[in-house]
Amino acid sequence: MTYYTDKIKLTSTDDDGRETKKRMTYLVEALSCSEAVAVAASDFRSGAWNFELVSVSETKIEKVMFIEDYKRNMEKAPSLADELT
Question: pTM here?
């Protein structure tokens, strides 16, 4: 798997006709650039915001580390926590 950054522009219009815009960047795990585009499109299709996919770029990120994994590893090997502090 490869990680991609999807840059998205969101636009919403309220009842008074005022337009709100947001720009966001998402990290997407995908097999290809086209799959990263499909993931973004499917995520925003059902929302109240109109979205525009501004760009998709492959990242150099090798792995995403989650705090849950760290906690689980510390339960298995608490001595490692002592070494890091």
Answer: 0.71
